[in-house]
């Protein structure tokens, strides 16, 4: 892409190690407020933009380094390849070092178009890049299978799934892809365009009886639609049917074969027992954003996923105790919830709860379990996430916890269970800690008055992070009298200018303490 004439004079300022990445789409971002943009994207559809690059001038946030960093982080979280930045020196005086450091820490590409050049036009880059993409997409070469699998390898592990692969292929072919069992029940369905109302079920049921036995490779009575199919084998030998439905064009047989190869590999890697009907398969479908499969399994299992309003994530180290911990959780939760799905995914017991008793306080149920379970020593962390509005919230929280899980015990030395709010604060602290010296120094200035006194630092960190603001818990952890803790906390509050015993005042101090532990761990 960088060899195109419209990029002459452009400079790569961050993410040079990612220049081998594939770009298959391009978008313009001028609504640069990350909060507002995220609402738009999440309302339309939860997607992973693994091959998209963004054009922007950051005009609406040109005066806010903090908002610029938030926007870069937002694009990183979406999976965007990078940012092409226009009119530097005219709109944004210069690209802040904090922005570049954040991008570099995530291998996120920032391309600066020639500075102080008012004659630049977006449409030149848009035209040349999209023309190159269209020309490239017209051919399915012999390396197509390897190239497609390599693209998926760049995604976070939790995003690698059969449905994500189908989405990438659908975008490449501009076609509908449907995966069914032998009874033609849909397991996965990806539409092109995403809001298409094409009745693929009727098309498949009309097509299958005549062509699925292998006598024909793919024709259709409806001249406006071409249907091709491939048989996909699962690890257990059971077949699935892949249908490729293209409107107003016919795909070559070779292309259908290559698509079948890619989907076969995806099913081998991530689709074990892809048509299995079980609670485990349902949880995997929720976490992998396989919406069609999730709805089908929920219907077959008679589980009302819309009723799920609570999630626990229970992490453990010893696989031999997994079954016992699950049974222990089931026994405890059966007293309070009518809907309880409890399944293990990669050393994490995912608990989805709904239809709870209104007589019981939900956070107290979680506290009670951690206080009474005989498996506390086997549990490394537990996260309590209330107010899950839908399965999208469930998936996002699961992904968020796994993003910060490695840092949990760097921040919280003496704790095992955490709320969703604490996890979100943790993510913010982790992001801030890698935004460069200037940002870190700004946050350290919040607690600077006590940093030269080790006793005050230890008391502050223990009180806010480990003891959750409890004088009793803090005194036990520090092995000092409760009144000693009260005296120290009062003194620290006076020095900082924040009353760290009041929730309304101590959040900045709380965040600064998390960043301190991250950079000093």
TrEMBL record:
Residues 457-514 form the PucR C-terminal helix-turn-helix domain. Gene3D superfamilies: PucR C-terminal helix-turn-helix domain. InterPro entries: CdaR-like_regulators (IPR051448), PucR_C-HTH_dom (IPR025736), PucR_C-HTH_sf (IPR042070), PucR_dom (IPR012914). This is Purine catabolism regulatory protein. Residues 2-133 form the Purine catabolism PurC-like domain. The lineage of its organism: Bacteria, Bacillati, Bacillota, Bacilli, Bacillales.
